[in-house]
Amino acid sequence: MQYFKNGKIFQGEAKFCEAMGIENGKIAWVGDNESIKNENALDLKNSLVIPTFIDSHTHPSMVAKNIDRVPCLPPLVNSIAEMIEALKKSPQNTGNPNDWIEGYGWDENVFSEGRLPTCKDIDKVSTTQPVIVYHSSYHLIVCNSKAIEIAGVDKNTKDTQKGKIGRFENGEPNGIFYEMGAINLVANKQKPDSLEDTITQVLKLGKKYDSLGVSAVADMLCLFHPYDRISIYEEAKKRGFKQKVVLYYEWGAIKKLGKKPLKREVGDIFIGGIKLFMDGSIAGRTAFMKKPYPNSNDVGMKMMDEAELLEAIEYARENHLQVAIHVMGDASIEFIVNTCKDIQPWLKDTPNIRLEHASIMSVPILKTMKDAKMSFGIAPQPIFLFSEYMAYKNNLTPDLLAMAYGMKTDDEYVLTTLSSDSPATLWVDPENLYTTLGASVNRVSSTGKDMNKKEAISVSKAIDMLSINGAKIMGLKDIGKLEKGYEASFQILDKDIFNIPSEELGNILPKEVYIKGEKVL
Q1: Nearest 5°: CA angle at 28, between 27 and 34?
Q2: Cα three-residue angle 323-233-71, rounded to 5 degrees
Q3: Using H for helix, E for strand and C for coil, what is the string for 412-432?
Q4: Rounded to an integer, what distance in angstroms lies between the CA atom of residue 354 and that of residue 339?
Q5: Which residues of the chain have pLDDT under 50?
Q6: Nearest Cα to 271, choosing from 249, 243, 244?
Q7: What SS3 state is found at 323?
Q8: On the chain, which terminus has fewer CB atoms closer than 10 Å, C or N?
């Protein structure tokens, strides 16, 4: 057994121990220094030890893909003009008409021009190579005229059922494509990465997760094409990928395969559920709202009706899977909860229905969830409010803004986690969950705005939401706590995050990380 002593080992609210012993990847003992007789015990030198983080809502495939894309977000890019110049410097800008120039992370709310870019702007990057640039929310793209031409989209192309094509006043496409139904008109024309390239990207990302103290992730948008996502992770694991992965397959992709059964077998890498989209994003004004957005008659997009939701739930029941639903607007949340509240759960070890983002949770809806027959869990991301505060301020009325990502209130009624939704936010490194921890405790935006400090949570609560609560909502066993019988996955910090100013929490990084008892950092 390997012993650790002289530590401040976090075990829960105001609960710590000094020492622990690990064996066969598990915590076999916890106690005090005096109980250790082993001379080879590692001295923690009074360092704080906390569980590794579990990112319960993220998109590893997108994060890995972004390694080769041009970042178009602050502090690197603050205007459309700067975005154009950044894209011109892309290594993909080869002059070859078959090479796509790709970027990510832009947001019109931080551009000095104060407007959306269009294809006329992106044509300044290239008129011979296709260019595609993802919004920070990943719910819209902007592309150049060449990409529109390759997609075969013109003024006569109708909007898709689950997407919208942006247009100039004359009806011609303006280069903006909203939501996946429309985005895929363009994105599906790109040549997919090779299998080997995809595995290599995941392995690089695994090393980054090691350095950030992340031992498990939920991949919230898995597909079967061009490669079945689970096979990518299984091969990466053979080559040294350390993280646990729970996969959620996109409902549309499942239907395309004739609703072929998926099997849920809990392990290090397994299929946890299916992913549905109820609406869009608040930043893009496509989240489905009860009342119109400020200075608009638009209430956003409702992407699913009751029949489709119940069809997906029945499929999940038959295959013993969770249902994870992207839902941000208050009208969407109310629709989901009221449709599902009286359905008998089919899984006993984890929430059957996950509300992803759950941006605006009213107390009446939370009470309904708590009292429901159905078992619910929610996965909000306060990093949205932290990094995109002006978009939320511009797109929400004051009463709704005050409710946004109120995890303290949420947690009083229903299992609540913290997660990154990386890379789908306006922050350069959102997969670093210390940014999320800091935003949740400090409740001050990146621009210094008050994010409703009444919803601030304690450091202890934030750690739980990033560890044991994440394990619960993903259906993971024996991980997320530093107690006997749990997996020996922990991070050692050189600062005591319980005793530093809350505004410094986002700057923390672990100095050592262990996953299943193995030192990975």
Answers
A1: 105
A2: 85
A3: CCCEECCCCCCCCCCCCCCCC
A4: 14
A5: none
A6: 249
A7: strand
A8: N
CA distance between the termini of the chain: 20
Distance CA 211, CA 31 (A): 28
What tokens were used for 91? 């290594």
Q: How far are the Cα atoms of 45, 149, 182, 252, 365 from residue 188, in angstroms, in the given order? A: 53, 13, 10, 15, 38
Its sign, for the CA torsion 169, 174, 180, 184, is: positive
**Nearest C-alpha neighbor of 452 from the set 360, 328, 348:** 360
In 3D space, the residue among 120, 130, 86 whose CA is nearest the CA of residue 106 turns out to be 86
In 3D space, the residue among 369, 262, 274 whose CA is nearest the CA of residue 319 turns out to be: 262
Q: Give pLDDT tens digits for 68-82.
A: 899 998 878 999 999
- Looking only at the bridges linking them, the beta strands covering 512-515 and 322-327 are unpaired
Q: Is the peptide bond before 226 cis (omega within 30 degrees of 0)?
A: yes
How much of the chain is helix, strand and coil, in % rounded to 5? 30, 25, 45
Ramachandran region, residue 408 (left: φ > 0; alpha: ψ -120 to 50; beta: rest): alpha
Nearest CA to 135 out of 178, 187, 193, 100 is that of 178
Residues 38 and 315: their CA atoms lie apart, in Å, by 54
What is the chain's length? Answer: 521
Joined tokens for residue 510 = 């672990």
Per-residue pLDDT tens for 192-245? 889 999 999 999 999 999 999 999 999 999 999 999 999 999 999 999 999 999
- 10 Å CB burial of residue 296 (0-12, 13-18, 19+) is exposed
Rounded-to-integer distance, Cα 476 and Cα 244, Å: 9
Pure H helices in 213-348: 229-238, 251-256, 306-319, 330-340
**Phi and psi at residue 363, in whole multiples of 5°?**
-60, -45
* Residue for token pair 């994105």: 187
DSSP secondary structure string for all residues of 110-165: T-TT-S---HHHHTTT-SSS-EEEEETTSSEEEE-HHHHHHHT--TTPPPPTT-EE
pLDDT > 90 in the chain, percent: 91
Tokens of 324: 């994870």
Q: Which residues contact 163 (CB under 8 A, 6 or more apart)?
A: 177, 178, 179, 180, 181, 182, 183, 184, 185
Residue with tokens 């075990």: 11
Give the 3-state secondary structure of residue 326: strand
d(CA 422, CA 138): 10
